[in-house]
Amino acid sequence: MAEPLSIAALRAEAQTTYEAVPLLLDSGAVVGLRSMLMLAKDDYTAVEQLLSEITAAGAENRLAAVIDAMRRLLLTVADDSAVLEPELASWEPGLVMNLIERWQSGTQAPEASSSAN
Question: What global pTM score does this model have?
Answer without folding.
Answer: 0.85
